[in-house]
Design a protein that fits this description.
With 538 residues, this protein is α/β, with parallel strands linked by helices. The protein has 14 helices and 17 strands. Among the domains are: 6-275, Purple Acid Phosphatase, chain A, domain 2, CATH 3.60.21; 279-369, no CATH class. The strands form 3 sheets. Strands 4-3-2-1-13-14-11 form a 7-stranded mixed β-sheet. A hairpin with an 8-residue loop joins β5 (125-130) and β6 (139-145). α2 (39-53) runs parallel beside α4.
Length: 538
């Protein structure tokens, strides 16, 4: 039983060195460059300010906080300042580094405050943490973890053990882990990093059902989540990834931040999200009537932006516009870019340079739907294409067979059953070959067909070997001897390729050039010697 309740902040993947991406180009983008570069630092500042405002007992950082090799000095100095602010509030920080931000990567010239404690690299280390508000030094929590050496999966969970005296234990580490191996370890909280915001909870062994039905997974965690109850003798297991502190491109439009963890005297754990992102990515859809003009579109976009600004928020908005206009020239004009780019630049200049910033990232249009089915009946290339697309849309499970469009030498048989690329015509009537190429390719081969296929391979290779020998004899005895040696070394005998013919022709051409050069230099003896040798052979 826990004697004193406590709370802590769990955060990971601040990645202070990574910039914001996907805001578009243009001259106005340079004017907000500094604001975007400071966004990761602003998210971290909000995180640590909330840690002080919530009066947490300690802070856990589960890796990927900053890469000293690529960040430069600025983010490192900023981080030290934030740690110093936590030290003044009496809040210790426990940091389990990833493969690039462990204690071995931190520059020795920049000193961390005394309240920051790194976990060792590569080997387990323990810390006993006392409550910040308690007068005694009796520990409330036992921390176990280590900093990573590489990006491989976390080692087996068997090395993490609960405290023998029943002290509340927390594992702090960065990376992926086998969830099945930690279900019954008896450790109530796993503070992990290196993944999107998600969590898994497992009941104690005496209350748990089958493992597959025991886990609760929340990839998009609600703002508050509570695990445990007063009737359980053993605490449940909670595995949590807090995720990044901000989204860095238009695809990352969800909420980001750290996690405030409260543990009461009964061991009931409550997770509360602390939002930190200073930039919100918004996808705004505008539906216009057919034949709408550019003036109407501009007025609607300005109206939406004023609505965003009316909501008092200190966050910057990055808006991706999606225009739905069923007809007229406006959709085609926007798709060409000649109209969209000037409109974007105008919106950015008017609303994206002064706070509250509403930056227009892009303008896209929805593809028009065909109002009439008559186009499918036309005898045009477009109609042929649309009919094929409609067929696959109506039957999505139907496999797409492209085998008939490939040259015969490039066809691959199913089940990984490889045959020589060129199959002689006399073998085309073999049942197993018809079955593989033209029959039901989803059905596995029977043992009899496997034997037939093996014998077929041998026969085809023998035909290829005979053809190869005849080809080699036609290019001359000297070259034939060389190629015979290669045939003996080769495990698979294939017909001579066009590339090999080119190589032989180059070799003959090289010999002729040498003879011409010798004759030009007056080395007639070489030619005379060759003639005498030829006469002697006759």
């Amino acid at each position: 039983m826990i004697k004193t309740p406590f709370r802590f902040l769990h955060a990971a993947d601040l990645a202070l060195e990574l910039p914001i991406e996907g805001i578009g180009g243009g001259t106005s983008a340079e004017l907000i460059e500094k604001r975007l570069l400071d966004a990761p630092l602003e998210a971290a500042r909000r995180l640590f300010q909330q840690a002080q405002a919530e009066e947490v007992d300690f802070v856990l950082l589960s890796g990927n906080i900053v890469d000293p090799n690529t960040s430069g000095v600025g983010p490192l100095v900023f981080l030290v300042e934030q740690f110093q602010s936590l030290a003044e509030a009496g809040i210790p920080v426990y940091w389990a580094g990833s493969d690039h931000d462990g204690p071995d990567h931190w520059p020795s010239a920049i000193h961390l405050p005394e309240n920051v404690r790194f976990f060792r690299t590569g080997s387990l280390e323990e810390f006993l943490v006392a409550g910040r508000k308690t007068q005694s030094n009796i520990p409330l929590v036992r921390l176990v973890g280590y900093s990573r050496l590489d990006q491989r999966k976390i080692r087996s969970a068997s090395e993490f053990t609960p405290d023998p005296s029943g002290l509340y234990t927390i594992v702090v580490v960065h990376g992926a882990i086998d969830l099945k191996s930690i279900q019954y370890r008896g450790i109530p909280y796993w503070a992990l990093g290196g993944g999107p915001r998600k969590m898994f909870s497992y009941k104690p062994p005496q209350l748990a059902g089958p493992p597959a039905k025991n886990a609760k997974n929340a990839n998009f965690e609600p703002e508050t989540f509570t695990v445990g109850n007063t009737e359980e003798e053993q605490l449940p297991t909670l595995v949590h990834y807090p995720g990044p502190t901000l989204g860095r491109n238009p695809k990352e439009s969800r909420e980001y931040g750290g996690t405030l963890v409260d543990v009461d005297v009964h061991g009931i754990t409550t997770l509360t999200m602390l939002p930190t992102t200073p930039i919100r990515w918004v996808k705004e859809r505008i539906e216009l009537e057919s034949g709408a003009s550019m003036k109407q579109l501009r007025a609607e976009m300005q109206k939406r932006i004023h609505a965003f600004r009316s909501v008092k928020s200190r966050d910057d908005l990055m808006i991706s516009w999606e225009i739905d206009c069923p007809g007229g020239v406006l959709p085609s004009d926007l798709r060409t870019g000649d109209v969209a780019e000037p409109l974007l630049e105008e919106l950015r200049t008017d609303y994206g340079l002064e706070p509250p910033i509403c930056w227009s990232v892009s303008i896209t249009t929805t593809l028009p739907e065909f109002q009439s089915l008559g186009i499918y009946d036309q005898k045009t290339i477009l109609a042929d294409f649309l009919r094929e697309v409609r067929e696959f849309q109506q039957h999505p499970c139907e496999p797409i067979n492209l085998l008939s469009f490939l040259p015969r030498d490039y066809r691959e048989l199913p089940f990984g059953k490889k045959l020589p690329l060129t199959i002689p015509a006399k073998f085309a009537s073999y049942p197993v070959l018809k079955r593989l190429v033209f029959g039901d390719s989803k059905k596995e081969l029977t043992p009899t067909e496997e034997i037939q296929l093996t014998n077929l391979r041998k026969k085809i290779r023998e035909v290829h070997r005979q053809d190869r020998q005849r080809t080699l004899q036609s290019v001359g005895k000297e070259n034939s001897d060389v190629e015979k040696k290669k045939v003996k070394k080769s495990k698979r005998q294939r017909p001579i390729s066009a590339k090999m013919f080119q190589k032989l022709e180059k070799r003959q051409q090289r010999v002729q050039n040498i003879l011409r050069e010798a004759a030009a230099l007056g080395w007639d003896m070489l030619a005379d010697g060759r003639q005498q040798t030829a006469d002697g052979r006759r």
